[in-house]
């Protein structure tokens, strides 16, 4: 394997979208969407970046976007949010709702069970996640909240934020969404541990950790506290009290406000849905009347929202370019390259691989074959294949696209891929395995087939989150801090009234967090697990984790340098795995694997 790095110096993302879109005769709207975005963005980039850098500068230094400038026009009228001036308690019965009673037997038993577990259980079969010793709160029951909240300390009147991966002095700057949540968590734990704390908190809102906070930060902390109290009452099955607290959340939160207000808005919705499910007001079957949104289906074709995210939010490019670099290195001496994509989506990342292979002079490629596995959306995957075929033709690259369509992953077989003994095979899994955690037999079926194929490298990008706990409060806290970091990122990277931001938050984020928080049993489809769990799982199949090369890490650095928000995107190594996050909160993982 060589560490030679391929270059994107001539790679024009806008041009790629043109070529990929223009060949799709049955889907003219894709091309129109790209053109629309270009028109929308030019004025914004000219005003904010000029010729000095920003997204447009990628063409000169990195060649990813060429000279095309992207942004979003403010298509929605501005929403003037009214300042909430009502007192904390008022007539809403909040003091009664926030009373911290002695734990009810069912909830007490639940908390004792958490304390015994120490691990977060998962549905991935026979997996032993790495154990972490935690200081459990015996009264509040939010052990993870206590863990998160301990990262915020006060030293000599200054505010210092500490975490295992990120240390930053926050004096003189606005707190991030996660920092707001840590302050709220610390206050909530403190007040919930003493009966007198509730009355004191409501009567004297600045008594606990409020000195030095701005008016907006103070209100945001209070808002998160109400959300935490609501979640605890849901955990107690005290739904009437939870409802009163959620009424307050509704008054103070907004889907068009700042990042804290937005994340509370969607988590409040999720808690209300959970209450409705638990009380029988709404059944899972009744929820089918809601307009459905399939994230995986939406990602299978280019659209304004996914394109805007690709351009403005760095996480996707970081993982994709580092992953492509790893494939290039592992097929450096292969004349026939076969990539098996477990979840192809719009496939735009493969245009980068095509460019890298075409640029090889010492070992010309005789054939690049991409096999895409699908269990649904046949037409969309076929359209992706046609766009990739057209792009390869424009580069004079011998190319073959194969759709491996199966009704169920249990039906996947090795011979479906029409493997050639002269091919060098690589497997690419971008957020594909997480979709099968809820169906362990499907996940095991896919792994057995991959093991028989024995690819030269398996590239795995996954969500770095613990969203699979059977314990509601554990799952809620994990999801709150995870999505809090994402909402903070979007607040930084996208305009407040950007319609693509609203779609991203309401449909992509909103549906996801609602499923994590509100659903149970088979209805809970989203069950993300962290890299330690995947390591244990892959080890069962004789897979060994391998290092990312210096060239892959250099690609990460190049990508981040071309984002204005790149300095807030944190990258850390967890062993041989790359963790990509926002201001110290890991959100995605990239790991490479080989069979022993």
Description:
- The structure is a single chain.
- The protein is an alpha/beta fold and 596 residues long.
- Helix content is 46%, strand content 12%.
- Strands 4, 5, 6, 7, 8, 9, 10, 11 and 12 form a nine-stranded mixed sheet that branches. It has a three-stranded antiparallel sheet with strand order 1-2-3.
- The longest helix is centred in the last third of the chain and has 22 residues, at 472-493.
- The protein is globular.
- It starts with 12 loop residues before the first helix and ends with a strand.
- Mean pLDDT is 76; it is low at 8-15, 21-96, 100-142, 150-171 and 195-209.
- Its main location: nucleus.
- A motif (VHIID) lies at residues 337-341.
- Residues 383-415 are annotated as: Leucine repeat II (LRII).
Protein topology:
Elements: H1 13-22, H2 28-48, H3 58-61, H4 94-97, H5 105-117, H6 143-149, E1 152-155, E2 158-162, E3 167-169, H7 177-192, H8 195-203, H9 215-235, H10 239-252, H11 259-279, H12 295-298, H13 304-312, H14 315-330, E4 336-341, H15 349-358, E5 367-374, H16 378-394, E6 399-405, E7 424-430, H17 440-453, E8 457-463, H18 472-493, H19 499-518, H20 531-539, E9 543-546, H21 550-561, E10 569-574, E11 577-582, E12 585-595
Parallel strand pairs: 4-5, 4-7, 5-6, 7-8
Antiparallel strand pairs: 1-2, 2-3, 8-12, 9-12, 10-11, 11-12
């Amino acid at each position: 394997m060589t560490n030679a790095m391929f270059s994107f110096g001539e790679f024009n993302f806008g041009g790629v979208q043109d070529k990929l879109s223009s060949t799709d005769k049955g889907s003219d709207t894709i091309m129109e969407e790209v053109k629309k975005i270009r028109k929308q963005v030019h004025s914004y980039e000219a005003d904010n970046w000029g010729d000095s850098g920003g997204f447009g500068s990628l063409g000169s230094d990195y060649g990813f976007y060429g000279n095309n400038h992207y942004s979003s026009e403010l298509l929605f009228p501005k929403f003037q949010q009214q300042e909430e001036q009502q007192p904390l308690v008022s007539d809403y019965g909040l003091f009664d709702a926030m009373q911290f009673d002695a734990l009810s037997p069912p909830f007490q038993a639940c908390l004792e069970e958490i304390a015994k577990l120490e691990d977060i259980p998962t549905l991935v079969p026979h997996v032993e996640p790495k154990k972490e010793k935690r200081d459990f709160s015996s009264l509040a029951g939010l052990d993870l909240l206590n863990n998160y909240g301990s990262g915020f300390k006060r030293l000599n009147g200054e505010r210092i934020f500490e975490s295992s991966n990120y240390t930053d002095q926050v004096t003189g700057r606005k707190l991030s969404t996660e920092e707001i949540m840590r302050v709220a968590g610390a206050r909530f734990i403190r007040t919930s541990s003493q009966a007198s704390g509730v009355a004191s908190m409501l009567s004297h809102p600045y008594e606990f950790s409020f000195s030095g906070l701005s008016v907006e930060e103070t209100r945001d902390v209070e808002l998160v506290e109400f959300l935490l109290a609501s979640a605890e009452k849901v955990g107690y099955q005290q739904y009437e009290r939870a409802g009163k607290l959620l009424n307050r959340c509704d008054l103070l939160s907004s889907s068009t406000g700042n990042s804290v207000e937005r994340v509370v808005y969607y988590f409040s919705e999720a808690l209300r849905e959970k209450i409705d499910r638990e009380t029988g007001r709404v059944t899972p079957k009744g929820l089918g009347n809601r307009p459905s949104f399939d994230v995986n289906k939406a990602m299978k074709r280019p659209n304004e929202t996914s394109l805007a995210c690709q351009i403005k939010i760095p996480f996707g490019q970081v993982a994709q370019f580092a992953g492509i670099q790893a494939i290039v290195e592992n097929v450096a001496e292969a004349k026939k390259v076969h990539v098996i994509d477990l979840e192809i989506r719009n496939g735009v990342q493969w245009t980068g691989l095509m460019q890298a292979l075409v640029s090889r002079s010492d070992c010309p490629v005789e054939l690049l074959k991409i096999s895409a596995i699908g269990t649904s959306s046949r037409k969309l995957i076929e359209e992706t294949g046609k766009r990739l075929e057209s792009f390869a033709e424009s580069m004079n690259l011998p190319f073959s696209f194969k759709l491996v369509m199966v009704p169920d992953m249990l039906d996947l077989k090795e011979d479906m891929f029409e493997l050639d003994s002269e091919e060098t095979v690589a497997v690419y899994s971008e957020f594909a395995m997480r979709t099968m955690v809820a169906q362990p037999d499907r996940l095991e079926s896919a792994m057995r087939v991959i093991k028989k194929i024995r690819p030269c490298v398996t590239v795995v990008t996954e969500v770095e989150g613990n969203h699979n706990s059977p314990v509601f409060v554990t799952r809620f806290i994990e999801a709150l801090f995870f999505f809090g970091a994402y909402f903070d990122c979007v607040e930084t990277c996208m305009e407040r009234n950007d319609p693509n931001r609203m779609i991203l938050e309401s449909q992509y984020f909103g549906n996801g967090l609602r499923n994590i928080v509100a659903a149970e049993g088979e209805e809970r489809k989203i069950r993300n697990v962290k890299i330690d769990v995947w390591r244990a799982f892959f080890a069962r199949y004789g897979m060994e984790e391998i290092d990312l090369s210096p060239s892959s890490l250099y690609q990460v650095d190049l990508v981040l340098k071309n984002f204005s928000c790149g300095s807030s995107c944190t990258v850390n190594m967890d062993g041989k795995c790359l963790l990509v996050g926002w201001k110290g909160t890991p959100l995605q993982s990239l790991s490479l694997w080989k069979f022993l």
